[in-house]
Please model this.
Amino acid sequence: MLVLDKLKEYIKDNKDDIVSDLRSLIKHPSVSAQGIGIDECAGTLNSIMRDAGLESRIIRIENGNPIVYGEVKGKKGSKTILFYSHYDVQPAEPLDAWRYNPFSGIVTDDKIYGRGSADSKGNVIAIVKAIKAMLELYDELPVNVKVLIEGEEEISSINLPAFVEKNKDMLNADACVCFDGSLNPSGSPNIFAGLKGLLYVELRCKTAMVDMHSSLAPLVHNAAWVLVKALNSIKKDGKIAIPNWYDDVKVPSKKDLDLLDGIDYDLESIKSSYGVKEFIGDAKGKTALKRLLFEPTCNIAGIYSGYVAGGSKTVLPSEAYAKIDFRLVYDQNPDILLNKLKKYLKEEGYDNIDVIKLGSVEPSKTDPSESIVICTQDAAKKVYGKEPTLFPNSWASGPDYVFTKILKIPSVWTGCSPANANIHAPNEFTSISNVLDGICYVSSIIHEFSMHK
Amino acid sequence: MLVLDKLKEYIKDNKDDIVSDLRSLIKHPSVSAQGIGIDECAGTLNSIMRDAGLESRIIRIENGNPIVYGEVKGKKGSKTILFYSHYDVQPAEPLDAWRYNPFSGIVTDDKIYGRGSADSKGNVIAIVKAIKAMLELYDELPVNVKVLIEGEEEISSINLPAFVEKNKDMLNADACVCFDGSLNPSGSPNIFAGLKGLLYVELRCKTAMVDMHSSLAPLVHNAAWVLVKALNSIKKDGKIAIPNWYDDVKVPSKKDLDLLDGIDYDLESIKSSYGVKEFIGDAKGKTALKRLLFEPTCNIAGIYSGYVAGGSKTVLPSEAYAKIDFRLVYDQNPDILLNKLKKYLKEEGYDNIDVIKLGSVEPSKTDPSESIVICTQDAAKKVYGKEPTLFPNSWASGPDYVFTKILKIPSVWTGCSPANANIHAPNEFTSISNVLDGICYVSSIIHEFSMHK
Model:
């Protein structure tokens, strides 16, 4: 029987050790996009996990960043829960926008600043220290616990699907908790019973060998124009116009919609935070929320062609580039959609546009009435003293599908990082009290899951 | 009576002086976009013009680059011809692509390398040395000659229209020769009886205060998408779709079309030079040439938004930019068209796009049966031994309209620089023999014009 007060006392007594270990993780950059400090961070994490009582090891990945994996056997015959998170971080650039060195882990009052402090080293520490606390307080865990911390989440978890595929037996569990999330502004965790997928492509258009003087515009195809026309043909009236794009969309279910109905989430704050006048189609309330959670998107993340410096230059560009991220919803498949996109552009006559896939993630969905979803909700309510927000789906993407589709187990996505923690931006921070609460949250999830039939 | 043989002998005797003066002009960078070496070049040019026998002076322009202006009175009661060219040059960047220092004026065999050697210092020297030669050989010119060399041609001749407007009496002439052109690959000059106009704008779209995570794409307007949609609405089926855009198009005339019929110009070489597979709409022969000369264009010179570096970033851009040059044909007016563009975008609902005018030039047209056109053709034929190519209109733009519309005199656009001289590109050069032929060409134009009724 988990006694929260006893746990809180333990945490209070061990606060310095917890903070110190989080700071040592932050001090190793572990920027996966730049390959900086990866092995050092994995090594330190492995030590912290072993110190916590996990049978932990570093698993090398060919041409990839190591995975740190550990297990603790629980009470005999008990269920198994798998925790997932990541130790790699986004690049810290632009460096001069940081108040402190992003890899110093500096502490000011309750805050620890640093790249990766909230996303997701604070979450990682919460998982590991929860296990340590439970082992020290109760000698034994009520369930078997497996912990998988990868080093490539910020670069689309390139090697994770193959790793999970290859290690199904080792990773086998009754449920998965992806602990890589944040609280909402009211101070209670967001819990997601599904994540969007992603197909990230670059369109590269080439119409000639070199740029030309724009006086030739009556005769020569301009790569920027060709790309603009092609992009325009992809999206019409706010919908993706590629034939059969929506064929495999299988959400929202009736349960998802019921859940959505009960969510009180302030989307209007997005407008003031970002200086947005109105949403697309002037969507409001539940309509806006439904779109956010369940609409497949086609987003131009970048476009570039010709002369973009100051003043004017009369050039006819021979090359043009666009980066597009398509967010997918269950059960769209990125590779099938990639082929549809390629086929469509070919059929529309865009022979001079190459489509390069830069990454993909499959969408993932878990039934919100699954045991792990209910246990996570219950744990959150007990630890944070208020109802968490359970979303039937997230508007963001993550590698959740490796658990739901490859391991074929239910999975929730949650975490303990503060809301508005400048994730992926300068001056990222986490708060010490949030990490300490996270330890209680993880312990409670384990406890609730052991109790739930 | 101009005797070409006598002139050629004079040129041979004075070749060193001619080349030396051209090199000293090249050694002064005179990059108008960067404000480097402007005054030095104007000063040197003024000395060269005075040495040639012109009453020459430097005319300062408020907030602009000086104009070098000179006159020679001809035989009493004779006609007046005005020569126009420019001493400023394009930026030399990228510097590391140059074989030699772009401001050294290095001579290798018949070539002089340097930024501005062909565009248009070689042409300037041809004008000035032709006057010097004729004065030294014949003591007097057969017509009054005025020479206007500006220092802002490469930055859209910003101050030229106001200058010409203010100095109509001083500049008054019977005809103008804009000597800022090149030979065609067969070695005979191109002559243009008209130039396209230009309206250069930047579209700036802003949909929010800051960039966002692309997971918000179902709700928040993406500036790149808004810009792509707006651009697409401007051009449909190859035509500019802005209402009444073509209202003021008054070319080609019957004479223009007759002239076009007789032109044998190898447009196909554009394809091989630039690696272009086929022209827009697979245009060929006279159809292609007619389009090139008389079609108003809407060219995307540059477009930029969001993340354009390596790899992928899931960002929803809040800002997007496009640079567009519209080429105009006689008698479209850039300011009227700018208003039509602004009005159209507003009516189409693009309130979040600002249209910034970066520059404009009016189109210009001279009747191909004008005396100055015929005299220039005759001069070219005599000097180069073959028919020049007379185009009823150019596909490029230039400030010709200040002469045809403000001074209201006929004007031709021609010159003596070599074909394929890497104008506006690294390793620009001119050839000494072309400059020397240019001296004969200018002298011949003056002579023919004095003879023609």
